[in-house]
Each structure stands twice: as C-alpha cells, then as structure tokens.
C-alpha cells in the first residue's frame, strides 16, 4: 500500500495512478473505497440531521433488519448508528427467551423494546424470528407458528394506527456468498464468535429457509407495513442504499441541502412483490 509520505507528495490524480502502477496496486479498488467512505460520511451526516428532526417531532421509528445469517445486518446497523446520539437511539438484539418469557404472549418481549417519542430503535432481528428461524430450526411448535402468522399483521396494524413508523428490511444474500462469509468468519479470530451451530445449518437448510421466508412475505407484506428487499452480496452497497432508503422516507429539515443523492438505487432496494427477483431464492 501507499505510505503517508508518498501520499503527501501526490498533487494530482495522474500522479496517484502512476504511483499505483509502480507499486502494482489496483487503483480502481482504492478509488471505489474512497468513494464509499465519502458517501458513507455524507449519509451518516444526514442520519444525524434526521435523528435530530425525529427527536424534535417526537416521532417513534423502528427499523427492522431481517435476513439470512451473514447477510450483513449487524454491519449495516453499526454504520447506521456510528455517529447517532445514544440518548435517542437504541439497538435491540434480544437473546433467546427465558422460561418466563416462553409462557407469555410472544409479542410482549418486543413491545417493551418499541421506540419512545423522539427515538429510533434498530432491531437486529425481531419478532420475525418466529416466521423463519424458529420453525426452520424447530424452536417453536406448528401451532405457535400458525398463531404468529395470523397475529403479526394485526399487531403491525395496531403499531401503524398508533403512529409508530416501522421500516422492515430483508437483507438478501446468495447461497455462495453466505458460504464465503461463513468461511471468512471461521478464519478470523476476531469474528469467529459470530459463527454458531445455527449458522452451520443455514447452508444445509437453505431451501427450508426459502420456503418459510416466502410464506412470511406473502402473509406479512402489507400496504401499511411493507417488506423492503436489500440485495446484499455487496456489503458496502447494501449499507449505503439502505441508508438512502430510510432518509428518503422522511421530509426532514435540511434534506434539500444534502451533498449526495438520497434516492436509493432501484437495482439494490426493491419493495417486495410476489415475482421479485431476489438473490436468496
């Protein structure tokens, strides 16, 4: 890579390209990374403006991140929240229910985590665990699953009527890319903790996941609470475009002065419909 001294001597773009050629460095990758970092900085700045506006208007916003394991949900949430004020923002990633919670109404543990006035809550997985992961892995009974599928549209309609803004993302990843990311996790001592026995079964039970995912979409995609598909084979693109989608949903103060486009790429962000071309089929 370039040393700090070398970069300080670069005055023009062509000088950087020549230096890269001398060192056999792929300049395209470097320029892509620089563009990504710049876009990320602009969008994170807009998210700060959005958060201040939401706090002032006392809106309640819940953003749900769902998708297969290794689809990039956690990484995206990290970039969303990196510069937000922690006083009016929370990340919710619930562990498995306790014995007491197992005996309660399923939605109760999630109701406690819903946003307060002026707050944004990011759900790293949500009540939709019962729509896909739990039935696939045998963590719930068929009756529990069926009850959930009947109740969830009514539950979300109540949230809608009460003024809670819910954005539901499904991070879509191909089977090949998922395996690649699993392998990378196992080889990285800093990320190996992310890999669990459930992840191991993700590849084996791919088709079963697909079946339950499609049932979830068909029964819980509504006009008042639609599913938004994010193609995530490119992590960085998925992060930027999901940020743009959230920003595009609100007419906040100063939005017109943004230094980058706030309209998401329709090739990456798609509202669900039955015949949509997804990656994780």
UniProtKB/TrEMBL annotation:
<dbReference type="InterPro" id="IPR022486">
    <property type="entry name" value="PPK2_PA0141"/>
</dbReference>
<dbReference type="InterPro" id="IPR022488">
    <property type="entry name" value="PPK2-related"/>
</dbReference>
<dbReference type="Pfam" id="PF03976">
    <property type="entry name" value="PPK2"/>
</dbReference>
<dbReference type="InterPro" id="IPR027417">
    <property type="entry name" value="P-loop_NTPase"/>
</dbReference>
<comment type="similarity">
    <text>Belongs to the polyphosphate kinase 2 (PPK2) family. Class I subfamily.</text>
</comment>
<dbReference type="GO" id="GO:0006793">
    <property type="term" value="P:phosphorus metabolic process"/>
</dbReference>
<comment type="subunit">
    <text>Homotetramer.</text>
</comment>
<protein>
    <recommendedName>
        <fullName>ADP/GDP-polyphosphate phosphotransferase</fullName>
        <ecNumber>2.7.4.-</ecNumber>
    </recommendedName>
</protein>
<dbReference type="InterPro" id="IPR016898">
    <property type="entry name" value="Polyphosphate_phosphotransfera"/>
</dbReference>
<keyword id="KW-0418">Kinase</keyword>
<dbReference type="GO" id="GO:0008976">
    <property type="term" value="F:polyphosphate kinase activity"/>
</dbReference>
<feature type="domain" description="Polyphosphate kinase-2-related">
    <location>
        <begin position="32"/>
        <end position="256"/>
    </location>
</feature>
<keyword id="KW-0808">Transferase</keyword>
<comment type="function">
    <text>Uses inorganic polyphosphate (polyP) as a donor to convert GDP to GTP or ADP to ATP.</text>
</comment>
